[in-house]
Each structure stands twice: as C-alpha cells, then as structure tokens.
Design brief:
2 copies of one chain form a homodimer.
Chain A: H1 3-15, H2 18-24, H3 29-43, E1 48-50, E2 55-57, H4 59-86, E3 91-97, H5 105-116, E4 120-126, H6 129-138, E5 143-146, E6 154-168, E7 178-179, E8 188-191, H7 197-209, E9 214-218, H8 222-230, E10 236-239, E11 249-254, E12 260-267, H9 275-291
Parallel strand pairs in A: 3-4, 3-5, 7-11, 8-9
Antiparallel strand pairs in A: 1-2, 5-12, 6-10, 6-11, 6-12
Helix pairs in contact in A: 1-2, 1-3, 1-4, 2-3, 5-9
The structure holds a DNA duplex.
DNA sequence: TATAAATCATAGTCTGAGGCTATCAATTAT
DNA sequence: ATAATTGATAGCCTCAGACTATGATTTATA
C-alpha cells in the first residue's frame, strides 16, 4: 500500500472516473488503472465496481476511503508543520546560562528575539557550566552561554567584559579609578560559591598578586554580593556590566592583571541546530554587537 | 514520501539505531541509511543527528514522528477494517422486497441471518418491483426479492408458491378442495392495488377463463385483503403461504390454470457483492431450501 | 594506548514497480 | 449505424530501492 496508490484511489473515488482522475494526478490512464488494480490486489478486495462505462466505489472502497483521506490529510499536515518550523512561525528553542550571565544580556536579547519570532517558544535553563555542557549533549538545551572555556563543543566568543573591583562609596578607594591587585591584600573579600567562574577569577587575581584573600563571606548570588559590598562588608570582583545599573557602588579598574571575563556561546558540534536555535544564535550575536560594540572582541 | 520510508523512519526513531531498525524491518543497513536520506532530502530537513556512533532524533524528526505514527496507525486500522469486513464480523447489507413477500419468509430468514452474523447490520427496503430494480442499480440495496420477472439484473428463483383462491368459511365453495377458474365468474373479487404482481395474476386468471372480474374492492395490503375475504366481502387470489397461519379462511386450488407466483432473488449483474451481501444471498437460499423444500422448484 | 567492535555512509550492481504509448473492448450518446 | 467515451491489456523503458562489499569514525576493551 503506497501513498501514491492511496492518492490515486481517493482521486478516482472523488471523481468517479479513472480517466479524469489520471489527468488530475498527472499520470496516464493505463497507469491509473494499473495502480488501482495493484491496490485492490494488495487489500484483497475490489474497491470499485466497473459498471458500464465508468467506475463506482464499492462497499469495500467506501470503507477504505475515509482511512485514505485521513492518511493523506496527516501527510499534508506533516509537511505543513515542517514548513512552519523552517519558516520560524512555530518552534522551540532552549537556552542554558550560568547564573551570573543573566543580569542584563539575557532579558533584553530574549525580548528582542521574542518580538521578532512571535511563534517560537523560549526556554531558559540556569545551571553551572559543566552541567550546561551535559544538557547540551543530552539535547535539552540548544545553546548555552558560559564564562568558562569548555571542551568538546563548538563555541564562539559572545563578548568580553572587564572584571572590576567593586567597593562601597564609603570605601577608602572610592575616589580612585583603578588599583593594583597587590593593594587589595588587606581587604575583606566577598566571593561567589564553589564552582562559579567568578570565584576562580577572584582567587586567581589574588594568587598572581602574591597573597591569599581574606574571605569575609563565601557564597551568594550576584544580587547578594553587590548588596553586601554596598553595605561596606567587603570588596568583590565582578563583571563591569553587572553593576552598570546599581547605585551606592564604585568600580575600580585593575591596573595590573587586567582580567576579563569572556562569555562564550556554545552549541553542540555534531547536532544540526533547529531553525529556531540558529535564529537565536544570530540574534544573540547581533544584539551583543549592537549594544556592546566596545566590549565585544569578537 | 513513501509509506515504507515512514515505517523505516519510525523504526529508527524508536530504536535509535539504524542497524537494529534495518534488522527489524528486514532490509539491509545501507538500504535503511539511504531511505532515511531520501526522506530527509524530500522534507528538506535533517531528521536525525548523526552523533558519534549512533543517531538520535532531531528537532524536526521529533516534530514529524507523531504524524508518521498516526499515518501508520491509520493504515493498520484500514487493513483491519477491510479484514473484519471480509470475515463478516462487521458489515452492512440492504435487502429490497415487494410488500407481499415479507409475511413469513423475510422475518424468519433475516432472524437466522442475524443470529449467524451478529455484527452485520441489516436494512430492509419495501418497494415495488421496478423501483427495487432502480434501487439495486443505484447501489442502495444489495439484493431484492420480487415476484415479477425483471430484466437487466441477475436473478435466481428463490421459490415458487402456488396461488390459491381464498374464500371465507361460510362461502358456498368452503367444502371444496378446488375450483375451475370459470366457476368464479359470478364472484366478487378483492384485488391488490395497481402495480402489484398479484393484481396482474388475478386479472390474467379471469381473462384466460373468459370473463372480466367483478371487483368489489380495489387496493389494500395483504393483511387487509385476507381480512376482507374472511368477513365474506369477496374472494381473492393470494399465495398459499400467505394464509398458512390464518383462521376463518378456506383455500381452493385452481384446477385449471394452476397459477404459481415465483419469488426471484435478484442482484446487480456487474457489481461485486460485498461479503455480507453474499452471505445473505446464501442464507436466503439455504433457509428456503430447508423450510420450503416441497415448494421450491429451484 | 593499541586493538577490536560497533555503527553509519558510500560505491557499485541488479531487479521490478510504476511510468509511458498504442491499441482493444465495451458502453453510451448522437 | 456511427462516433465518442471509458476502462483494460500488451509491451516497453527507466529509476527507486533493494543488495553486497567496503570505508570512516567512534567507542569499548585488553
């Protein structure tokens, strides 16, 4: 039972005429006759009664017809669904991010994406970098933004943002524009939890300056950390962009070291991105290049 | 998009493995690979991601899969429906009869049929012989029982029943076993309506005996006619079988003439009977041969 | 880390399903 | 009667879809 046979069968049943159906289906009349015979042979019953000149649907044909129509409708629906997916009028894309990435980039870029592709459903997964790679390999997320260098996946640099030392506006360095890492030897540090890249960056900065940081508070998300800094509890190393919109804080460039956090957009190297995932990929790069032209290294 | 392609696609999606799916579908592995590629080419998207050793359903594949499964289910359902029809576990058959036929034959024969083929729906159409032929040609009824000879359709003799003159038990002939047609010259006749074969038989009998019958009452179905005869209103010519179960009546054989009414089972000569129609055909003949062996001429 | 096993893709061959044209047979309209 | 319409048959041809053999790549294992 081939699809062409069902299509031909439906045409003959609808038109009640082999010749006309053959024309409609763009085949020769004998081919149509043969196709019907083949279908009848396969299902083992006569589908049409050859009555006089002309044919008409038999009892069995009338039984088969609705099934045939449903099959043809399903196939058409499948084609349309795939087409809609390619046209980006429907779809789904899942983005993974590490927790500190979201602050400004994600909401605005996703809002842009959503305005442009109304029918595509967005999904956001927040997790650590290594877990994101697992989600990517498992196919749970299509793309992910991480700050660490990861292996085994295809990655592009989304943007590089400078890391700054942030202090309260009452702090002794509050009037300065930059510090040397070594000047932070006596400061109390507020650091991100285990596993966060920003924690590693911080520890690395101190180590290179030749001291082990005195940790005032360990753990806490971005919001908490910057609030604690504003309250004068200590200093912290954060991305420049994370404090753009905050008041009561002062950012100090790090004169030596010049640390930067690089956000990478990663995707599965072997999996073909869906049209929706490819679109999100484009929108993210586009949004960054328009809003962070100065920060993006490319 | 061929049926086999969807079947293969579903197998690979289910098993996540081209080789195993090829085994299951009884084709060689390269044939499976090629079939998948052909399907992907046709729909214009990748349906599987070839990730490492093994394949897994892509975004587009996941979209297509439910459609494919519905198509396969519909085709299976269609096959089962046709099979059930052939097995006589489901079906439909429509029988046409002329009004005076029904009295004993139809109810009992149809009851037998229904006991044997529980799933098959019966439909009964009562109409005149010429209308029944039209219904037969239009495919509304599968079979019909008529008493007249009709042309252009395939007919078999179901049974021949003798026509008798029926009188009331108070009638002057009530003690006799038979009469000559000419003896009925002075009787009042109750006749069936225009178009009924029994009316024609009656008039024909009188004409051959050399007189025109005096018609007391014209029109009326079988029940009415025999009731009127029992009430002494007149005589009538009816089939022997029609009055078997009645009291207050006396039947007289017609010594000369010896008229018989032949019931014929007709079907369309070009249309292939459905299994249900063929079964009803068999049951009717079978029932007649078992219950009217003496009456059936064959 | 080298070797074996597993898995999918490619190359090349062959057969038959399904297309075509030409024509016949049967029915219906003129 | 004659012409037109319609479906079936015969005979031919092409390519889709099957096969075997083999290659390339990844993963498991000694």
């Amino acid at each position: 039972m081939e699809f062409s046979q069902l299509r031909y069968f439906e045409a003959v049943a609808r038109l009640g005429n082999v010749t006309k159906a053959a024309h409609e289906q763009h085949i020769a009349q004998p081919s149509m006759s043969k196709a019907l015979q083949a279908l009848e042979q396969e299902v083992g019953v006569q589908l049409f009664d050859r009555v006089g000149r002309g044919v008409e649907l038999s009892d069995a044909g009338a039984l088969l017809l609705p099934y045939a129509r449903r099959v043809l409708a399903e196939i058409q629906a499948a084609r349309q669904a795939l087409q809609a997916r390619a046209d980006l009028t429907v779809g789904h894309v899942s983005l993974g991010v590490t927790p500190t990435v979201g602050t400004r980039l994600i909401p605005q870029a996703l809002a842009t994406f959503n305005r442009r592709y109304q029918g595509i459903q967005l999904e956001l997964h927040e997790a650590g970098a290594s877990e994101l790679v697992e989600l990517l390999n498992a196919g749970v997320v299509d793309l992910a933004i991480v700050s660490a260098l990861v292996h085994g996946v295809e990655s592009t640099t989304l943007l590089s943002e400078p890391l700054v030392v942030v202090v309260s506006q009452q702090h002794r360095f509050a009037q300065r524009q930059s510090v040397l890492a070594s000047e932070l030897r006596d400061e109390g540090f507020i650091v991100f939890p285990q596993g966060y890249e920003l924690r590693n960056y911080t520890l690395q900065l101190c180590e290179q300056a030749g001291f082990a940081p005195r940790i005032v508070l360990d753990g806490g998300e971005m919001d908490t950390v910057v609030s604690l800094v504003a309250a004068g509890l200590g200093v912290a190393v954060v991305p420049q962009l994370a404090i753009d919109q905050r008041i009561g804080l002062h950012a100090l460039a790090i004169a030596d070291g010049g640390l930067q956090r690089t956000l990478r957009l990663i995707r599965h190297s072997q999996r073909q991105p869906s049209p929706a995932a490819a679109a999100l990929y484009r929108v993210l790069h586009e949004w960054v290049s328009q809003h962070y032209a100065q920060a993006s290294i490319g």
